[in-house]
Amino acid sequence: MSTEHDAANAERAHGPASDEPERAADDDVAGNAGSAGSLDDNVDESSNENADETPQKPPSTIAGRFRGFLPVIVDVETGGFIAATDALLEVAAVIVRFDAAGDLQVAETFRYLVKPFEGSRLDPASLQVTGIDPFHPLRPALDEGEALRRLFQEVRKEVKEQGCNRAVLVGHNASFDLQFINAAVERTGVKRNPFHPFSSFDTATLAGVAFGQTVLGRAVAAAGFEWDDSRAHSALYDAEMTAKLFCTIVNRFRPVFEAGRPEKPK
Fold first, then answer.
1. Model confidence pLDDT, tens digit, residues 191-242
2. Which domain holds residue 109?
3. How many angstroms separate the Cα of 223 from the Cα of each of 74, 206, 207, 215, 218?
4. 3-class DSSP state for residue 47?
5. Any residues with CB less than 8 A from the CB of 120 and at least 6 apart, and which?
6. How far is C-alpha 70 from the geometric centre of its chain's CA atoms?
7. H, E, C per residue of 156-184
8. Are 5 and 109 in contact (CB under 8 A)?
9. Residue 263 lies in a domain
């Protein structure tokens, strides 16, 4: 489904729509394992502010597949590699859903341009790689807190719609993206973060297992998709291609997942 976000400085798109280039880390680092911790959620649920007061729907196929977690593909573009000091400049997220045939598919994409927070560091080398001009007068960027609030609202809505408990970030070298999201949440004090604070699914690791490739462009090509270098290095394009990669791996491993499920009592 392709839709347009109401605000000029946030985009929903189904299909690549950005020409700004990405961070270089994706080409060099295989990333941490698919989870930085256990998805058994060691966070004290009594202090969890993520739950909506309205009753959730019964668990959906996606909730059953990922043990109550909603995988949301995220990519960020930044002014450097240090989450505590370097600016968050773009964030994109992709919602995925199962189709009638039981295959995981890209459903919706959101992209937000972000203003550098006051006192943030902007590494010239990183800006050269991404091609982002953070202070361009025609750049329709949001304050960091507002970008997070809009993103989290969309994710929380999908969590409730799918009958899940919370979201888990999926990314290529996912710890990088999760660190910047967590640092921005801490800076801004934004509440009701739907993402698990430390667990993630890393497509660099998953693609290494499935295709023997850990670089995003090579893994995407191995999965059967065309990789366009001229469109790479933007949060929107990278999130969309990472989502296609993730869906392909999940769908390929469907027989393995189904074979490992306990049989229903007769």
1. 999 999 999 999 999 999 999 999 999 999 999 999 999 889 899 999 999 9
2. 10-257
3. 19, 12, 9, 12, 9
4. helix
5. 79, 85, 86, 87
6. 11
7. HHHHHHCCCCEEEEEECCHHHHHHHHHHH
8. no
9. no
Q: Does residue 122 fall inside a structural domain?
A: yes
What CATH number did the domain enclosing 25 receive?
A: 3.30.420.10
Q: Is 124 helix (H, G, I), strand (E, B) or coil?
A: helix
Give residue 261's pLDDT: 82
- Euclidean distance between CA atoms 85 and 139, whole angstroms: 22
Confidence at 262, pLDDT banded by 50, 70, 90: confident
The average confidence (pLDDT) of the chain is: 84
* Catalytic site positions: 233
The strand pairing partners of 106, in sequence order, are 96
Residue 67 lies in a domain: yes
Q: Is residue 1 part of a domain?
A: no
- Considering its fold, how many domains does the chain have in total? 1
Tokens 């990278």 appear where? 238
